[in-house]
Amino acid sequence: MIKYYIFTIILVVSLVKGDDVVNAVEVKTTSGWVRGYEENFDDGKVFRFVKIPFAKPPIGELRFRPPQPIGEWEKVQGISGAKSPSCPQWYFPLPGFNSSQTEEDCLYLNIYVPGKISTARNLSVMVWIHGGGFIFGAANQYKPQPMVLKGDVIVVTINYRLGLLGFFTMHDPLLSGNYGIMDQIEALRWIHNNIASFGGNPNSVTIFGESAGGMAVSLLTLIPSNEGLFQRAISQSGIVSTVTVAKKEWEIRTKDLFLERTNCNDKGDVAETLHCLQELPVENITNAMTMLDITDSQNATFQAGGLYPGADGKLIDKQMVYPKSPEDKSYTFFRSLDFMSGTLDGEGNMLSMGLSPEVQEKYNFNVTEKIPKSVLCEMTAPVFINNAVGNVPELVQEICDFYTTTESVDAQSNKVCEFSGDSTFIVPSNIMLSIHARDNTLSNTYQFLVTKPSPLPFGGNPPSWFKGAGHGDDIRFFFDFSDIVEIPEEKRKVVEEDQGLSEKIIQYWTNFAKFGNPNGESIPKWPPYDANSKQYIILDEPIRTGENLKSGATALLSRILENGRRRLIRDEL
């Protein structure tokens, strides 16, 4: 277990800002003083501490290196109105995703505390890991005040290095990759050692995240050295699996292209290559590759080796990606944690968003009208099978047959998307949940499914034929995006009607963070997940329950993914 020491001094100050008096509080941490500012809302107040460094700036000789502990600072950290900068990343033209200042010195976290600062409170803590495909996003885009106030918990949002700066690898100890995951662990260490000074309980920490953040959460639960840093985990639309860990051949392709474009490809050894990369302006790194370089426009596949987590034989071992059995020693830590995982019923909207004009021309369709069966049988299924187990046509045919319907063109279009959502999100989540729950008397397991579509869908409105709640439609229940997303007048009523469901979901999440059990007063009962009945809750209006989510798809695809796990272990890294 990790030991921690509390050095607690709290000063209450009032600062004059114009004609207003701003209440502030200064907290002494192991690293130095941090100043937080009071925010007032109709249902209470929140103290907001922003831009707290948790590691040394990853610049110069610390670029492409594991994060280094921050040590002690001299000046008080925390400025009224300040924002933590985003880590360097590609421009992504979605509301809120292109509004943040980017700086390479970006290893900061933000802390939100309800009511007052007192070490006697011993509040449960929730640490949010943002999504964005490991290539974009930032902590400051997520305002957790609704969770903080309604759930009476401390919420921490963290940055981590993205893209090449976070995950580039040469499979050498000097350039091993996975720095973004190491950043997350370093942030958790800082939180563990200091959150008591803010009134938090370091022995009641829940990590939660969505999409890439959910994948990071599931990965962190598989690293035994993280024991003591958190006690519970919630993975929303993201599970690490054989189809989400970068393949070595993708990493090699990225390495060759990246080094060529930065003129660092003619060095004698890895040490010289590292020095060359550390000398570059950061823009030369973020601009060296584009989405076109890692996306095959002919089949819409995203082959981003070196831009997201990969098996490195140390931090992330290849055998961690699906164990041989629940008793596998690498999963002992995972099964000791309370674990919640879930998805949305329309996760496959990501496919409809990513189909390029080249694909639409090749298969003679317009995505606003339909996605034909040929896209499934000739493109997405073959790519999935090839990535998992190699060229096995009979498995492609099994998938094609399973996701075929004669009901209507719209229904077939949704079936094509359904395969994408099942294979990437839903089935990996089902597998992870069953591994966690089977004969487990030490911790709790829960599953959810969101079926309530968002009135403001992530990425814009889907085609009219699309059915279900799309990827990312759940994060609106937890965070306030009012300052970055303008709500059209015609949708305000629908957004307001969602508030009741949002409050129930926040209660579920924060109850789980406090007790390892999401149930409580005035909310429908959420049954635990077990390996037999596989019960889950359906988050919609009304809230209800179900059993054995996607059993047929899980039986088919888990068999393929298990073969993929064996292949991953067998193949030489």
From TrEMBL:
EC number annotated for this UniProt entry: 3.1.1.-
Disulfide bond is among the record's keywords: no
Domain named Carboxylesterase type B: residues: 26-551
Lineage: superkingdom: Eukaryota
A Pfam match: COesterase
Protein name in UniProt: Carboxylic ester hydrolase
Segment forming the signal sequence: 1-18
A molecular function GO annotation: hydrolase activity
InterPro entries in the record: AB_hydrolase_fold, CarbesteraseB, Carboxylesterase_B_AS, Carboxylesterase_B_CS, Type-B_Carboxylest/Lipase
Keywords: Hydrolase, Signal
Family classification: Belongs to the type-B carboxylesterase/lipase family.
Origin species: Magallana gigas (Pacific oyster)
